[in-house]
Amino acid sequence: MRIGILGSGQVGGTVAKKLAQLGHDVMIGSPHAKDKTAEFPGIKLGTAEEAASHGEWLVNAMHGEAAVEVLPSLNTAGKILIDIGNFEGSIEGPLERSLGETLQQALPQVRLVKTLNHVSAHLMVDPVHLGKTLTIFIASNDDEAKTAVTELLKAIGWQDIFDLGDLSACRAMEYVAASWVAIEKAVGGPNFSLVLVR
């Protein structure tokens, strides 16, 4: 599958490498992506516009503030958009509206699926790293898109994928991401995640 990754930072780059390893035709798009050929051998690099046009599916790996500014001008209509981002300002301030809901409202023709937004980048693509069955949340207004993304998460290695329903769950999911920062400080690094015991 052709997948466009929007964002070439640690999160976007880590996800891009994993999807390429799984055999997908990946393109990373950002203002600086073309300067990172040594970092991403074998992966196409371009602008956000080029990555969005390349992808049958898209992954938002930008901070929410950038995503809200950039995504409306891109070729996204009818595509599955996996939103793994968070508003940077919500980490230490109030979350007035979730990023997932904001993007879906701004892009009504996009099939948005929220997931992976509260997990350290290395665990997004290696969920067995800690030796336990970790939990990842998922939400979407589009059940077919949610099912398709669930299959992709399984291919990455996720086993406990917990469906929180429609995008009204994004607010709660993004609050979990805000708590991640405090937990990282307390444990001294990003090598942790959540397990939903039920």
From TrEMBL:
Which residue stretches, if any, does this entry annotate as coiled coil? none
Query: InterPro entries, from UniProt?
Result: NAD(P)-bd_dom_sf (IPR036291), P5C_Rdtase_cat_N (IPR028939), STEAP_metalloreductase (IPR051267)
Q: Does the keyword Hydrolase apply?
A: no
On whether Cell division is a keyword of this UniProt record, the answer is no
Pyrroline-5-carboxylate reductase catalytic N-terminal domain span = 2-86
CC annotations in GO: plasma membrane
Q: Which UniProt keywords apply?
A: Oxidoreductase
Q: Name one GO biological process term.
A: copper ion import
Q: Name one GO molecular function term.
A: cupric reductase (NADH) activity
Q: Name one Pfam family in it.
A: F420_oxidored
PANTHER family of this UniProt entry? DUDULIN-RELATED, F420-DEPENDENT NADP REDUCTASE
Name of the protein in question: Pyrroline-5-carboxylate reductase catalytic N-terminal domain-containing protein
The upper taxonomy is: Bacteria, Pseudomonadati, Pseudomonadota, Alphaproteobacteria, Hyphomicrobiales
